[in-house]
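Q: Protein A?
A:
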Amino acid sequence: MKKVVTQAPAIDKATRIFHFIAEKGGATYTQIYQGLSLPQSSTSALLTSLVANGLLRQNENKYYLGLNFYEFGNKAIEQFNIKDLAIEPLTFLRDKTQLACHLGILDGSSAIYLAKVESPNAIQVKSWLGRKLSLHCSALGKVLLAWLPEQRVDDLFPDENLPPKTPNTITTKTAYKQELIKVKQQGWAFDDAEDFDEVTCLAAPVFDKHGNVIAAISTSGVRFQMPKQRINEFVQYLLVATKMLSNKIK
């Protein structure tokens, strides 16, 4: 890792030790001070303090990260507000497409809107925060499932037949699975008036640092607002927006 030097050298050293132990999966006192080129005496005192505070644990002659990190990690996730981070990417996408843009996540057997930036157009697709969408006929739903194991799809759709919403809705699980393969290959999904007549939508995934899809961004409008000749253009804007948010999260 990059060596950080601040006006709090003890914290700098402790942070380096945490990264070193995490990378090694545990390390002895000698490995730590030699591997990080730290003074022996101050390193010994620092390790003792970190163990006493639960940030490290000692097993025989090796040091490991303490369980406090697990608790801190859970709290960090609870306090991490992806909705706030999404506003800038959503605004960028809205300004490029002039359409309503949403952030959505998987919520049980539905997709749900967490954040929205309104379209400036007089004609708008009705939506609201907390609105749930069907997974099989929405672009958000397709994206949120495309990177999941096939078994999860089977669990969500135990029957072969899927309920139609419009004449364009995919109505069999077999066809839907093929659609998910296509979505994953191309990196984005299209709802071609499959949920509501004359309403189209594009969506793409947001990844965490481990490559897992944790959310999706979409842009939607009535069909004439998203003409076929502009689909590829809108997709490029969409992918920029999702990359912006993925980078913020990582």
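Q: Protein B?
A:
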Amino acid sequence: MRRVGLGLVTALSLLVGAGGVDAGAAEPDPKLEAILRGDPDYRAQRLMLADIPVPSGPAINLLNGRDLSDWDIWLGYPDPALTYVNKTAQPLGARPGGDPIFTLVRLDGEPTLRVDGTTWGSIVHRGTFGDYHLRLEFKWSGKRHAPRLDLPENNGLLYHSFGTPGTVYGTWMPSVEFEIMRGSTGMVVPVGTMVKPVTDVARDRSLIDPQRRFMVGGRPVTVEAPAWNVEAATDAERPVGEWNVLDLYVLGNRSIHVVNGVPVMELRDLSVQQTDGSRTPLTRGHIQFQSEGAETFFRRITLQPITRLPRIVVQ
């Protein structure tokens, strides 16, 4: 994707995602350049997870194997292309009777959440969780839908979700996103302008704007517009059609994203900015999955309580 001006970058990056090589030579945006000026240059690191915590209680299976009665479905606009630009249309809204966009199927002999991807929306577990290790497996089928037919497969694990369905772009609840997108799985995206995670970054000029990637020992920043995301430390995803294992460790307002055993993101000071500018720690919430243009399968979604986080070590 070619770099473009800041206003268009924000909208297009939300649609396209943050990964990818900068293919253009457009003039840098002065406002974004000023924000990125203090970022150190990215240096590739080999990261591993150490001191993995022992669960402090029994596992909870978020898929009951029978139906999706533990989940609520909300759908955005009939035309997903309106998601980031719509001013007048109404979302499809709640689906209390279920919807073909989110279904429970049997795949490879196991109960599996199938996300169609045609209409954008969310499926939200009714439980409220904090201090846990969430593990799941996902894979792509290879089916993509407009307006992302020629773009990487895209979905997301949205955690610490709160508030009203459809608050964000008429489609999702506010949350912290563990991005699930080809080339960028593990990236962090605040879903909702009030959500404020903090992480350590470096500038990777091979990326499209905002050219920020997680790096241990990097510059501490709050992830917020216009530098609205931070790319995963590395691409640890397996090919389309193969199962991937994701681990999310959350303790209080800190979290770690792990892809196929590789730690790719560490966050702290997760918070919600109030109308007076103050920030409240974000320590718990709902588990939410997206439908965002690609058929996706999720299985073995389990959650276990923990009392400490693992450590990320640079090898």
